[in-house]
Structures are given as C-alpha cells and as structure tokens.
Here is the input.
Amino acid sequence: MKINKYASLFPGQGSQYLGMLSDAYERFPTVRETFSEASEAIGVDLWSLTKKDNNSSINLTENTQPLLLSSSVALWREFIRSGVTPPAILAGHSLGEFSALVCAESLEFTDAVVLVRNRGRYMQEAVPLGTGAMAAILGLEQDKVDSVCAECTRKRTDGQTVNAVNYNSPAQVVIAGHNELVDEAIDALKKAGAKRAMLLPVSAPFHTPLMSSAGERLAISIEDITFKEPTIDVLSNVNADIQSDPKQIKKLLVEQISSPVNWTGCMQFIIRKGIKHALEFGPGAVLTGLCRRIDKSLICNSLENPDSLSSTVEVIV
Here is the structure.
C-alpha cells in the first residue's frame, strides 16, 4: 500500500525507556551524529542516559526532555534524508511540539536542545521533587474526569490541586497535581467507573497551574531564540490548531507549560483534513496506541525500529 498523504507525530515525556533507540543508533550514522550534536550543545552525554545499566537519570525531566527531542529529530533526519515526500502536517505531544518545530525548520535543533533542557529544569524547580505526580486514567470520559478532579480540589483546604492535563483520547485522560491529592483523585475516579489508573514515570506535575513560574522563566529564555515560519504545518497542543506566526508560536509554547494538552483535538484536526496515515518518530509507540483509541481510521506506525523505518520509506509516494 502506497502512502501519499500523512502526518508525522512526536512523543513527549513518558515514552522514554532504558535501551531506547539502541538498534537505530547502531545502524544509522545519522542517529549517532544527532545525539553527538545535542550532547555537545548542552555538555551532557545524552546517549549514556539510555544505557540499560543506567537507571538513575533518564526520568529526571531536565534530562528526559533533550533526550526525547534528540531521539525524535534523529529518526526524522534518517527518514527524511532518503528523499521521501514530506508530511502534510506535524504534531508533537507536549515536549514533542518542540521536536515538530525543529523538523518543520521553525527552530534550530541546537537552540531547541538548550531550550528544552532549561524548560525541564524550570518545570522541575517549579515544584520540589517528590511533591507532584501524574497519573493516566483509562476508561472514563473526559467530562467525568474533569468534574471528579474539580470536586477533589474543592474539598481541600490546604491549597492542593489536581487537574486533568492531557486529553490523550476520549477514554484516556492524564491528571496531575500534588502527590496526596492525585492519590485521592485516583481512588475517586476508580469509584466513578475508571477501568484503570496508573502513575506515570515523570518527576513533576506538568501542564498544571503549578507550572506557572516555569512558564514565566521559559518566556524569558525563549525571547532571545529565533523562530521562523514553519515549512510544514505544525499543530499547537494548546488550541489544536495550526499556527505559523513565530511570535504566536512562542506565546503558545509558554502557555503550554501550564495548560492541558489537547491531543485528542489535534488528532481530530488531522482526521478532518482527510489524512489517514500517521508516523511516530521517537521511542516506543505511545502515540501509535493513542491513534487507535481516538479513531481507528487513522493508521499509525512507530518508526523507532530500523526495519520499520526503512520499509516505510519504500511506501511513501
């Protein structure tokens, strides 16, 4: 089957795992060169973080963010250098939006690596380590998750909050907030009918109002970085719409830190454009799985595996 119109997707935090991209790193010089370029930009050996005997640093967000960005860009570079027709649209989940902007030539890769490392540090420092948590809630509609979280927050008198922060699919919503209240919300959501609830391997409650100070710091850092109009349409997580103006792109990236990720809306936008295929560039297949849950008509494939990447190149018209 030939593919002549497709979207490219870029994952965010939670997709990382020890041993990620090992086969691609061995086979493709482009992948090794990309990691070397990123490591030099921030003075950190990013590839060493992926080693199977290293279990202490991969989930620390200031490391995870440049690591995932580098992974996505490395696979994209290997894919696109073959001369395939570019995608019709790009979308990245949270951090993945930076990957999408790099691949759309809106943002220089080395600038992005430095920026997301700082972004990760700002997000981590906004809430002390161990204070916040995130959890995926499965099998409960979005409106119900919103209302349960609002009720849990309303009952607190100590200022703790919990919010729905990632609308990943109609039946998968991620919540985040203070540790204790996230645990309370998990219990309440299970009682409300959630089929499953699981804590995520992240180190801060992303996309909540608790991240507002991180957004303020990111706004300062991003001001001096040059953004260009993307050469390929890129969807924003904040409004699930295309934005081409560099100033507005910066503004939305700052807002994204403390705003929910409307991933369901982004995928519905892609489907409305008549796109039936999507390719995921990054470790694992989180976004591939979400595509199936949002709309089975959108056929999505992960390209982390070298054979999958190479075979996909052959079917792009």
Q: What stands out?
A: The first strand starts at residue 7 and ends at 10. Residues 7-126+210-315 form a domain with the Malonyl-Coenzyme A Acyl Carrier Protein; domain 2 fold (CATH 3.40.366.10). The mean pLDDT is 94.
